[in-house]
Structure formats: C-alpha cells, structure tokens
Specification:
alpha+beta, four-stranded antiparallel β-sheet, 11 strands, homodimer, Jelly Rolls, DNA-binding, 2 domains, Arc Repressor Mutant, subunit A
Chain lengths: ~250, ~250
DNA sequence: CGAGCACTTGATCGCTTTCAATAGCTGTGG
DNA sequence: CCACAGCTATTGAAAGCGATCAAGTGCTCG
C-alpha cells in the first residue's frame, strides 16, 4: 500500500492533524464541505513540490513528513525560509504565483485543496480564516526568531538553536517533559541545516563535532541525537535558560 | 499644537492610513464601532513604546513615523525583526505578553485600540480579521525576504538591499516611477541599519562609503540619498534585475 | 567654546568560508 | 562477493570578510 493510499478516503474526523491544521476550528458541516474539495498527494524525499515562479493551483496542509521553503539567488546561494511540519499550511489564498520553492525533505503526504473553492470558503467560513490567521501569526513569530539566529548568533549558537527547536518540537509531540535526556533523529541533512542557518555544510559539521566533543550532545550514527541536559543546550544557543515560553 | 492633538478627534474617514491599515475593509458602521474604542498616542524619536515581556493592553496602527521591532540577547546583541511604517499593525490579538521591544525610530503617532474590545470585534467583524490576515501574510513574506538577506548576502549586498527596499517604498508612496533618479532621506541611523542587517555600524558606514565611491549612490549630508540608476542598485543587491515584482 | 552624538576611517584579529582530501555508507553490476 | 560510483559527512589548511579596537571628524546644542 502506498503512503498516499494510506490516507485516501480518510475521513477528516480521523485525520492525524485534525486538531492542529487550518481546519482545526471547523464544525462537522464545514469539514464535510472541505472534504468535497480535498485530495491527497504524496511526494518522495528530495522531490520539489512547487517551483518558485510557477502558478499555484492548490493550497494545502502537510499531513506527514517534512518540507522546506527555500529561496535561491541567481548564483546558486540558497536560504531556507521555512520548515514545514505536519499540520503546517502551504500556499497563500489570493496569490497566483509561488514565491518560493517547496521541497519534500522526507517522504511526504499533503492534503490539498483546490485553490478557487478554498478561497471561496475562506470568505464564507470564518473558522478557517481565523485559524489561518493564528497559524500565520505563529509562523511570523518563528520567522522573527530565525532573524535573530541568522543575524546575530555564532555558528555554534546557530547549531544549538536548531537542535533545541527540534528537541522542543519532539518533546511536545511525544508529551515527554523537558527533564531528563531527549532523544530524536535529525530530519535534515547537514546541507539542509546549513541552508537553514546561513552557514556552509562544513561549518555545520565542525560545530556538531565540537558540541559532541564538549558533551552537549551525543551522536549515534550521523542523525540520532541525544541531549543529556536541555538547559545546557539552551545556554549554548544563547537563549534565556529561565524557561520563559511564549504563549 | 502637539503632534498628538493634530490627530485627536480625527474622523476615521479622513485618516491618512484609512485605505491601508487594519480597518481598510471596514464599512461605515464598522468604522464607527472602531472609533468608539480608539485613541491616539504620540511618541518621541528614541522612545520605547512597548518593552519585551511587558503585558500588552492595546493593539494599534502606526499613523505617522517609523517604529522598529527588536529582539535583544542577554549579552546585548540586538536584531531588528520588523520595521513598522505608517499603516502597519502592532500587537497580536490573543497575546498577553509582548515578545519584542517596539521603539519609535522617528517621532510617531499611533492609533491604539483597547485590546479586549478589539478582540471582540475580531470575532464579530470578518472585515477586520480578513484584512489582518492579508497584512500578516505580507509581513511574513517580508520577513522571509529578510532571512535571505541576513543568511546569505554580503555586507555590500545587505546595504544595497536595504536601500532598494526604502527606495521602492518611497517610489510607491510618491507614485514616481522606477525610471530616472530616486531621492529620499534615510529614516534610520547607521546603528539601526546595522541592527536590521546583522552588521556592525562600522561595516555599514564602510559599505555606504564604498557604494558612494563606486557611484551606485550619491550622498548629501549623512542621510539624503540619490539613486541615479535603480537597476544598478538592484544588481548590487543581488536581486533579479528583470523587474519581477511579487503581487 | 566644549560636550555629546552620529558618523567615518584605519589597523588588526578571528571566525567562517573556501578549497581539498578522505572516510563511511548504500546500492549496482560484473 | 567484491569493486566501484555516488552520496553524505568529517577533517585539515589557508584565505577572506566582517568584527573589534581605536582615533578622529563634523555637527548640534547648551
């Protein structure tokens, strides 16, 4: 059974991202209307989902897997400007042309909506527009967090910041607390990390080695990370360690 | 007459940002409701409007002047994460605590709404929520543009990028086309530019001098800039020069 | 006239990049 | 089964760009 078939005909009520995606606030009847315009698409790791400059004929949510938003300059320099996790939204109602490349970082399933009908629902269904506003504001906060990382942090702090973000996300998904060691797999290659952080992949590699040597992290293989002390990692990231979380 | 008094009792219909701010889509009766919860506040250049970590009891729009959103690390490194121009919105409905410092870069007037009533209107008045969504999506695009600048551009390209953004904004306000020389005053100190671009003020100064020497720009005094050839400036910024503007 | 501020310019330092070689892993085909 | 290509990642050496430290200019305002 393909990854796609696994979700085909899935009832929205049983959807794994039901309570976090753009449809989170929808009532039963609104969900039914959404079901009428939705379809699933799956992509393999490395595949480009949308090319910058191409017309967009759908919007949608990441159901499973990870995608990245990247900008590329003429001479090939690239910067990742967004990391799309399950429940994150792709596309902008009202926009015709995609401004960024969207690339599947891992195997990926998306729940797509045909753009025209979705835009009509945006007007008639405040629950969708309200949720999209919340999500966009969250993304804006995340983007501004990254501007500090990109503009002012050292290479070591950048790596520590990225690790702490991934660790926090994983902890929140697995409901494990912040005490005790945190274990996860890196969903990004060194190159993708470099593109996210505005570094070269060599610098990423060196700084990961340095954090390992200093026992801030432990590595098994290239991707499996253990964080023995989250507070220590956050110190290395240059973040406030006194646990002030934004709500 | 103070700057503030100049706007007091101003009818929304005569407001200079009426057609661009969060109230842009509102009907007459909705405007009247907004008038009931609005009040004006003015700030002097350099004054902090909101301190990061403080409770927010209002949201609002910049009516005139420029403000900046900045993040600061414990050791004093600061990064500007937003530049607020007339009609831009400050604050997030539903958020209690301000995540950034908001500082008046020039003398400034804000149209403020008490937070509670505004949040109630957000629910009952789709026109406001819809407009706020548009504006937030625009800000997200701008933030992502800046992530490329911060992560991948050289110091010279960063300066050229900032100048071209300011030039484009001025051209759009004054309805002057992109042909022929563009003239404007820099609304930012060298230090503020450095905070925006993730540079030191010394590097900003050096790169501006270099652009002047290479005749990409002309300076009269420290702030008055002339751009003889916008295409040339955009080349220096590393941007596509073939005029592809996002819509 | 002197203090204070914004800005410029010079000299040096150091972090990150660049260039380059190598290791480890996976899948393919002789 | 092994050789080899192709990819990801690590590590070393050298170079370059922007930061840092420092001095000085020009302007405004008391």
């Amino acid at each position: 059974m393909t990854l796609k078939a696994q979700f085909d005909h899935t009832n929205c009520g049983e959807c794994p991202i039901r309570h976090r995606a753009v449809c989170a606030h929808c009532e039963r009847d609104e969900l039914e209307e959404l079901e009428g315009i939705k379809y699933y698409r799956s992509f393999e790791a490395g595949q480009t989902i949308i090319w910058s400059g191409d017309p967009m004929n759908f919007v949608g949510s990441v159901v499973s897997g990870i995608a990245s938003l990247t900008q590329t300059m003429e001479d090939g320099r690239t910067q990742m400007v967004g990391l799309l996790l399950p429940s994150d939204f792709v596309g902008r109602p009202g926009r015709e042309i995609a401004p960024y490349d969207v690339v599947a970082t891992t195997d990926l399933v998306m729940c797509c909506f045909r753009k025209k009908p979705f835009e009509e629902m945006m007007v008639t269904t405040p629950h969708i527009a309200q949720r999209l506003l919340q999500m966009t504001l969250d993304e804006l906060d995340a983007a501004r967090e990254w501007m500090l990382v990109l503009g002012r942090k050292t290479a070591r702090e950048k790596i520590a910041s990225l690790l702490s973000i991934i660790a926090r996300r994983d902890a929140s998904i697995h409901q494990s607390g912040m005490a005790g060691p945190i274990v996860f797999d890196l969903p990004l290659t060194r190159e993708a990390m470099a593109d996210y952080l505005g570094l070269t992949l060599e610098t990423v590699s060196r700084q990961i080695s340095a954090l390992k040597k200093d026992q801030v992290i432990t590595l098994e293989g290239k991707r499996h990370v253990t964080i023995p002390d989250m507070g220590r990692l956050m110190e290395e990231a240059g973040d406030d360690t006194d646990g002030g979380f934004l709500v």
